[in-house]
Design brief:
- The protein has about 350 residues and is an alpha+beta fold.
- Helix content is about 30%, strand content about 25%.
- It folds into two domains: about 1-85 and about 115-265, Aminopeptidase (3-Layer(aba) Sandwich); about 270-340, Barwin-like endoglucanases (Beta Barrel), CATH 2.40.40.
- It contains eleven helices and 15 strands.
- It holds the Pfam family AstA.
């Protein structure tokens, strides 16, 4: 069975193995043992509440309990841009007009921006290719929303998610080749690595502060502004189903879209409910009405947050979990759990 749980200090090797599969473009998950070790330590301190909320980095892993293998990882950062600048391009519009010449032109522009500073961030979502089937991707991605619903006080009013931008088959970024290379004079992968290691001062030193006209970029660069990497498209759809949307902010290197939402607008905040684990599973299960959809179920423990998919449903504040499911959640009869239908209702 699969369970999504809070990361712990024994997960470093498994985390490194996952990071080694990621490839370029995800700056928050690089196969660097020192960087991953530091991040894991921050995550453990986050769940232990020994560092301020805005410095926290809640990391979760998906574990295959049959093999103890880590199948995926995801994370939520408490806030971005408070210790070092957080940059995006904001897509704006400039109007050029001449009544005398009867010319009116609207031009899309890129503005270097720190507008999203202080937002909480969903990041580091990666599911091992061996597990990309069934509901596994939904379980991994949506676990973060159930965590936010259980502990909303730990996060800021706005939450964002940077999507990996489009890359060609050879791994190059048309947007970076059309714009960034002119300023940084290095290849995309090197810039990607520097950013992952936290060496971001070059951005402020080298990037132009003036608005940039998108129309002046090569056509292949224009075409990918706001477009996602082909492997990221499913993740984008899942986030949009949960209430996130694109508002014209893109990554400064690959022009991947930044999705955002107010925490109060998330489906998990609106629709998730607490339930009590019912006693006598076998007897109750025989009498319980059949559920028509799978349900996300989590415990309510910060230090040892755990979440699964169950066929049981929340019926009048009670849920009928099997003993195996209770063991995965590390809670028993009478304990409170949080539930959310896995899939978005069609009328929403």
């Amino acid at each position: 069975m699969l369970v999504v749980r809070a990361i712990n200090d024994k997960d470093l090797d498994g985390l490194f193995n996952l990071a080694s599969q990621v490839g370029t473009g995800m700056t928050t998950l690089k196969p660097d043992m020192q960087m991953l070790g530091d991040r894991l330590a921050t995550a453990c301190a986050s769940f232990a509440e020994t560092i301020p909320p805005e410095e926290r980095d809640y990391m979760f892993v998906m574990e295959d309990t049959a093999t103890q293998r880590l199948a995926g990882v995801c994370a939520i950062k408490g806030a971005v841009g408070l210790t070092e600048p957080f940059y995006n391009y904001r897509i704006g519009t400039l109007v050029h007009s001449s009544r005398e010449l009867n010319v009116f032109t609207r031009m899309e522009t890129l503005y270097l921006s720190n507008d999203l500073t202080g937002s909480s961030e969903l990041c580091s979502l990666f599911l091992h290719p061996d597990y990309r089937k069934g509901h596994n991707g939904k379980l991994l991605s949506k676990s973060r929303f159930l965590f936010i619903a259980q502990f909303p006080h730990l996060f800021t009013e706005k939450i964002i998610a940077e999507m990996r931008g489009y890359q060609a088959e050879d791994g190059s970024s048309p947007f970076y080749e059309g714009l960034g290379r002119h300023f940084f004079k290095m290849d995309f992968h090197h810039v990607d690595d520097l950013t992952a290691l936290g060496k971001k001062s070059f951005i402020a030193e080298l990037m132009p502060r003036q608005p940039l006209y998108i129309a002046y970029l090569p056509q292949d660069a224009q075409d990918v502004v706001g477009a996602v990497h082909k492997s990221t498209a499913p993740a984008r759809r899942l986030l949009e189903q949960e209430g996130m949307h694109y508002e014209g902010y893109v990554d400064i290197f690959d022009a991947g879209p930044v999705l955002q939402a107010r925490v109060s607008e998330l489906r998990a905040i609106r629709d998730s409910e607490l339930a009590t684990i019912a006693p006598d599973h076998d007897m109750v299960h025989a009498c319980a009405p059949a559920t028509t959809e799978p349900t996300l179920v989590s415990n309510t423990t910060l230090r040892d947050f755990r979440m699964i998919i169950s066929e049981a449903g929340n019926v009048n504040g009670s849920i009928d979990l099997s003993s195996a499911e209770q063991q995965l959640l590390r809670c028993g009869t009478g304990a409170a759990v949080r539930t959310l239908p896995l899939n978005v209702r069609k009328n929403q």
